[in-house]
Amino acid sequence: MKNIKAVENVTILTMNENRDIIENGVVVIGDDKILEVGNNEIREKYKEAEVIDGDEGILIPGMVNCHTHASMIPFRSLADDYKDRLKRYLFPLEQKLVNKELVYIGAKYAICEMLLGGVTTFCDMYYFEDEVAKASKELNIRGVLCESVINFPAPDSKEPFGGLEYSKEFIEKWIDDSLIIPGIAPHAPYTNDDESLKKAYELSKKYNVPLTMHVAEMDYEYDKYVKEYNLTPVQYLDKLGILDENFIAAHSVLVNDEDINILKERGVKVSHNIGANAKGAKGVAPILKMREEGINIGLGSDGPMSGNTIDIITQMNLVGKIHKLFSNDRSVLPSVELVEMATMGGAKVLGLDKKIGSIEKGKKADLVLIETQSVNMQPIYDYYASIVYSANPANVDTVLVDGKIVVRNKKLVSGDLNFIRNELIGLKKKIYDVAKNL
């Protein structure tokens, strides 16, 4: 065993089944895995380990962003307050501007932001996903990367539904990678047809990879399926026979009790994207009822043009506050449940809970150290509440993915942030020249 590291002088929120909290804790890492979790006495066995002094910080499992469009970040802050932004601005911008270069540069910058905010795994839906995979490997982040399938010519396909063929090649290329989990992403029911949805499902089943889709997000989507089929979007997808344990439903705002029962019976997982849904005035997904029914819920940011920030600390805070407000009950979703959704919950949604999501012996060393010396972090009576309601992404001090340090002392070490930022800014003029004429 080589590359032994010991994270010490921390309070460990293990997020294991018992939700054990270890004060004055130590986590020993060997290569890419956690070797031991405990108190100071285990350090005696690893005297030669590289020490990471946590400075009385809080150590949590790496956070999971269950739904985003990372390479959309070059468009962030465009048309934020316009109605029908998707069809009026986003789709035209993508058709005119999205290419391999933009996807690669955008993905790199988004990954920098996620890593600096403590996200160690993300689920992506976009075009040219091979470029997102390339950026993920370079910066050392874990990615569930899913190529979009849509019913019109896309940036990486001259034909409608070209994402199906792209997905097959992409899955076969990355299926055995240590960091990249390939998948497939039909954009939504209303931007696909029965045949494309079934073909996407067949690829997911053949290769046993995730299938993710925007589901029950838009009012016009809901109205379409009720009017044309007398079915909700969830019921329509179920009738097609494509809902199963590999299916990740993003948003799921407009669902009823029957829909929730279908999601439960089929083993569907849900990405709750409260920030984007609130900003887009879409509504509040009934995740309290879903959780009562045992549906796995993780947190997502949605794209940087929808929710703007792509960290998960921000999402935890919003989820807690908005659901308390809408429930008229400040006791719902206690902080421990929010941290669970951000870590182990997200791991379960992506089918990775055997590898990540908790700090336990044998799991991948995806870890996040949140410092507690900044002015906003004291005093601490409840570690979970401090993370959810006091912390922000700037409190993330150190991040490890697969045992490698990618952020140290709040600085990205797996890439050159200044260079990547300048690449991103270099895209602005071209984007703005197109956007102002839409």
Keyword list:
438 residues; alpha/beta; Urease, subunit C, domain 1; TIM Barrel; 8-stranded mixed β-sheet; 4-stranded parallel β-sheet; 15 helices; 23% strand
Under the CATH scheme, which class of the largest domain? Alpha Beta
Number of domains: 2
Mean pLDDT, rounded to whole units? 96
Largest sheet: 8 strands, mixed
The percent range for strand residues is: 15-25%
**Apparent shape:** globular
Fourth-tier CATH superfamily name of the largest domain: Metal-dependent hydrolases
Write down the CATH topology of the largest domain: TIM Barrel
- The strands making up the biggest β-sheet line up spatially as 3-2-1-4-13-14-15-16
Ranges where pLDDT stays below 50 over 5 or more residues in a row are: none
Strands, helices and their partners?
Layout: E1 4-13, E2 21-30, E3 33-38, E4 50-61, E5 63-68, H1 85-97, H2 100-116, E6 119-126, H3 129-139, E7 142-149, H4 163-174, E8 180-186, H5 194-207, E9 211-215, H6 219-229, H7 233-240, E10 247-251, H8 257-266, E11 269-272, H9 274-279, H10 287-292, E12 297-299, H11 313-327, H12 335-349, E13 367-370, H13 383-390, E14 396-401, E15 404-408, E16 411-412, H14 417-425, H15 428-435
